[in-house]
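Hi P.,

Sorry for the delay on this. The queue was packed all week, but I finally got your sequence through. Input first:
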Amino acid sequence: MQHSLSNTLNIRIGLVILCVNMVISLLFWAFFVWLAENEFKNNIELQTKHLSDAFTQQLWLFDLNATKKLSILALDAPDIIGLRLLDHTKKIITNEGVFQGKSVVHINNELRYGGQTLVGSIELAFVNVAMKEQRNIIFLTVFSIVGATLVVTFYFIPFLLERHLVRPLNDLQQDMISLADGKFRQSNLSGQKTEIQYIIDVFNKMASALAQREEDQRKTEQKLRESQERSLSLFNGSKDSIFTTTQQVVFIDINPAMLTLLGYTENEIDTIIAQIFMRAGMTGYLY
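Then the structure:
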């Protein structure tokens, strides 16, 4: 079963672009997931530092009421789901929120006043609540890019193939049909892409060569006809008797001067002359 070149190229180019899109989409997805996770990590470090500094100050002042209020306020942050504060003896001062769950990140940090004196420790549980939403946005973005690319591909690639490949080849095919019919004219196609233009140039050279050969043959045939006409004119107009025969004394040509000399018609002379030459033992003389 034969398939058109444009359909085959459409399918293959479409598959190649689809595969490339999938690879790019996976890389795009991985990059943005990494970017989101890195942003979440930096946010954890920043919040941990701020909370550690604040609780270190409160524990150094031993202001437990302010410490508990600060714990409740800290849980208002969307990424913090659990906070446990301990004093320097590991006694729990406050324990708010939850520490178990999927994708929970635990942070343990010692609290030292002035970077030296241990006043307690803090345990934090973080969860990236925005990750799911971010992944949905990334997925929709990737899906939109892939879909738009495929739509553009399947509409734009056939247009390019039709313009730069199918149409020139169809026109060239018509020129080849004309060439096969004996019309040795060059193609009017020009300004095509390098590969197509090379085929057109080769076709034009072939058409030009065939046209030149036909012209040479026509001139040769014309010269031959003119030569035959001159020879026939000399043969018929000569006052000398001229004739040609085969080896079996069958006359091929007899000029009017020969017929006038003998007084016979061309039909009558065939038999008479043949008998004369046979008696004389002569064949094929030309006078």
